[in-house]
DNA sequence: CTGAAAGCGCTTACAG
DNA sequence: CTGAAAGCGCTTACAG
């Protein structure tokens, strides 16, 4: 069943059928009705590949998890963002193509070439560790791209992320108002942009409150539980040890809590802890974990609209910082030192 | 840059270039080298739409989250399965197309038509609640389909799921060996196939051990925390109340634990609990939760191979049950009644 | 081993 | 308002 069949059945030309299907206005109401009815009856659907070959757009958006040590589908933060993105971009009429990086990785990874191969209308790039240069190439091309947690700079690119400095400021302020003055920070890897933004926010906030920054109270982990555990052990060896700890991920907070308990101390009575991410387990841990929640819904939704505007040429490259929120539970205490 | 350009530059015909790119063998080594070199130099890539229009296959697999109340990308179990599936099917040379259901849903949802529109090579169908008839239509078509947690019956379809009866048998046996004789079950919705399989397994296992089944010890929830809490409150009102509880999800187990604690009782000393899913929070809850872990890796990977075989016509419709595993933590106790 | 030609199923100026 | 025709960029018999 092709457009030719429909044209024949309706007694019109293929061009006319095509126009009707694409909502052109210069067609008589009578012809339109007849054709539409036949389309309805037959259940005719145009073929994607023929449409794409002939027209330019595909209404297809690529989803790229960038980085060699790459966050995959299961990443708890990004999956929520991508889900919200998918919903919104779906409303706008786009489907999603997920590149399978496997084969691809073995050869030279050329994201741009793959986008061109499928003639994607745009793509969303999820940040990972150890970003490939192929991402830069894509970014600098004229394919519309939106980065999540990664700063894209191309003329047809934009990015969106949580305001990580702000998040740290909120945490430090919360600790400060609860009376804490000795506040440590367990960061992500030293070369992680996100972790560094959080660190800078932490330092800036301490300065603002006139609290001097102690280098030995800044530890580095890898966002995982074990690294938080080890970082906390280092912190506890110091005299005095910090009475409040802010970690760049919830998992590291869980690790820190484990270390604190092992030392015979209590959370939050001896050491207060605030994490980052608000993963599901925060509600069920002992104690329940105070943490920073990123507005994943909003990030995903905004990414969809920003990409759409870029595609429709309605806008220049844009970038947005989204407000974080502190979710207060048991782990952060509230006593005066 | 098209195949025409490459042909011109190499001084051969388009047909020859096409053959070389598609690994035909009836081409002289010399021509092959020359063409390949030019392809390399120019970075030429064929256009997906032209290839698809002309050939039949797309190397594209559709991912469908079925059901009106539909599990989305963020579902903790399915996301792991889909991730493993993506990796394996990627190795086999396929990319993934995620249908955006939004627009689509408003009209009559026609999965089959959409698959045909994109000329997908096959698809994977993730079970949800309240499955549409459009899924049946897809299942019965001759497009290769693999269902996860959903029994497909078409001649080109297969399915894969955890052996849910077996899982229940393992749980009941574990309780039995720990000395428990009064074992309750908190199920999913009454019309949920998965929940029912687990229920039947539970009943069968009780029978096997000569323990009589008490209808009032079977409660129904909706897999969420609150429903587990309420179901447990009902169970605790009974005299005697059960000393061991098996729930069809971890979240319901957390709800049950909350109810038990609220009643001034202890887990596992007064009531032992075993959940289902092994979500991340099980490791951090108080007490940590004993639970059934499904082999998501294996399910995803098998789904990929099964679908591949179906596509390549190497196999008839197949279906597989995957072994579950009991992960023992603190909540299940181990004392004699 | 190589190429001319038809065809895949659409869309888009263009002419009427 | 409608249609003939060219074209999108490939692949695939088929002939040589």
Kindly describe this structure.
2 copies of one chain form a homodimer. In chain A, helix 1 packs across helix 2 (14-21). The first copy, chain A, has helices at 3-10, 14-21, 29-42, 48-54, 76-91, 101-106, 111-118, 133-140, 164-177, 193-208, 225-237, 250-262, 296-311; strands at 60-65, 95-98, 122-126, 145-148, 157-162, 183-187, 218-220, 244-247, 272-276, 290-293, 319-322, 325-327. Chain A is elongated and about 90 Å long. Chain A has 337 residues and is of the alpha/beta class. In chain A, the strands form 2 sheets. Chain A has a 6-stranded parallel β-sheet, with helices on both faces. Chain A has a 6-stranded mixed β-sheet with strand order 7-6-8-9-10-12, sandwiched between helices. Chain A folds into 3 domains: 3-43, Orthogonal Bundle (434 Repressor (Amino-terminal Domain)); 60-161 and 298-322, Response regulator (Rossmann fold), CATH 3.40.50; 164-293, Response regulator (Rossmann fold, 3-Layer(aba) Sandwich), CATH 3.40.50. The first copy, chain A, is built from 13 helices and 12 strands. In chain A, strand 8 (244-247), helix 12 and strand 9 (272-276) form a beta-alpha-beta unit. Chain A starts with a helix and ends in a 10-residue tail after the last strand. At the A-B interface, helix 4, helix 5, strand 2, helix 6 and helix 7 of A face helix 4, helix 5, strand 2, helix 6 and helix 7 of B. Chain A binds a DNA duplex (16 and 16 nucleotides) through residues 2-4, 12-16, 18-19, 22, 26-28, 31, 46-47, 49-56. Chains A, B: It holds the Pfam family Peripla_BP_3. Chains A, B: Keywords: DNA-binding, Transcription, Transcription regulation. Chains A, B: Residues 1-31 form the HTH cro/C1-type domain.
């Amino acid at each position: 069943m092709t457009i030719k069949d429909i044209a024949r059945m309706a007694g019109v030309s293929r061009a006319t059928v095509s126009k009707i299907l694409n909502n052109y206005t210069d067609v008589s109401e009578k012809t339109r009705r007849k054709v539409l009815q036949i389309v309805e009856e037959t259940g005719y659907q145009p073929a994607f590949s023929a449409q794409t070959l002939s027209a330019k757009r595909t209404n297809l958006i690529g989803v790229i998890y960038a980085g060699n040590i790459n966050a995959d589908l299961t990443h708890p933060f990004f999956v929520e963002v991508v889900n919200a993105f998918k919903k919104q971009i779906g409303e706008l009429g786009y489907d999603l193509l997920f590149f399978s990086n496997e084969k691809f990785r073995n050869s030279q990874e050329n994201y741009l070439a793959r986008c061109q191969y499928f003639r994607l209308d745009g793509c969303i790039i999820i940040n990972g560790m150890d970003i490939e240069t192929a991402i830069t190439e894509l970014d600098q091309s004229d394919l519309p791209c939106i980065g999540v947690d990664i700063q894209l700079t191309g003329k047809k690119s934009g990015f969106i992320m949580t305001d990580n400095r702000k998040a740290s400021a909120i945490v430090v302020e919360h600790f400060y108002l609860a009376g804490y003055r000795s506040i440590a920070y367990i960061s992500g890897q030293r070369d992680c942009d996100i972790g560094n933004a959080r660190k800078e926010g932490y330092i800036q906030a301490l300065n603002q409150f006139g609290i001097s920054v102690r280098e030995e109270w800044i530890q580095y982990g890898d966002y995982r539980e074990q690294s938080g555990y080890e970082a906390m052990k280092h912190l506890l060896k110091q005299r005095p040890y910090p009475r409040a700890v802010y970690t760049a991920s919830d998992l590291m907070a869980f690790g820190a809590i484990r270390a604190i308990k092992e030392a015979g101390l209590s959370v939050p009575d001896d050491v207060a802890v605030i994490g980052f991410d608000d993963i599901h387990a925060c509600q069920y841990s002992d104690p329940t974990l105070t943490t920073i929640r990123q507005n994943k819904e909003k990030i995903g939704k905004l990414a969809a609209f920003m990409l759409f505007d870029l595609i429709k040429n309605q806008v220049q490259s844009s970038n947005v910082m989204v407000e974080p929120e502190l979710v207060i539970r048991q782990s952060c205490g509230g006593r005066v030192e």
